[in-house]
Amino acid sequence: MKIVTLFQRTTPLTAGSLLPEAITASYDGGLVFSSRPNGRPLIIGNFVQTLDGIVSLKIPHQSGGAVISGGNEEDRFIMALLRACADAVMVATGTLHEDPGHLWTPEFIYPPMAEQFV
User: Fold this and answer.
1) In this structure, how many other beta carbons lie within 10 angstroms of the beta carbon of residue 117?
2) pTM confidence score
3) Window from 54-68, 77-91, 95-109 with minimum mean pLDDT
4) Would you say residue 39 lies in a domain?
5) How confident is the model at residue 29, as a pLDDT?
6) Separation between Cα atoms, residue 47 and residue 55, nearest integer Å
7) In total, how many domains does the chain have?
8) Where in the sequence is the domain holding 83, given as residue range(s)?
9) What does 30-46 look like in DSSP terms, one character per residue?
10) H-type helices in the chain, by residue range?
11) Nearest to 63 by CA among 96, 16, 110
12) Is pLDDT of 49 > 80?
């Protein structure tokens, strides 16, 4: 699997853009975020939606993003990559209740690169 980026910021995250080589190769280069002004947290939103803007089908036990994305491998990789870069992951209560066995870690989302995300 290889992700090709269409646009990438050039201002690095304060700590730099240091990804393990295998992840860098899969992502089409280093991942770069804007600098954190005055030590403020960096907030990243990651949602899956249909072409007409639907983010949840509101069907019990089928309201997660995997239903919308069809479990797309590239989508799961990007979600894992963002989780690996994050200090925290916020989850809404409805999502938490819908999937009580889910772990909100990059390794859980994209097992093929679990060892690379640690």
Assistant:
1) 21
2) 0.72
3) 54-68
4) no
5) 64
6) 7
7) 1
8) 46-113
9) -------GGGPPP----
10) 21-27, 65-69, 73-85, 93-98, 106-109
11) 96
12) no
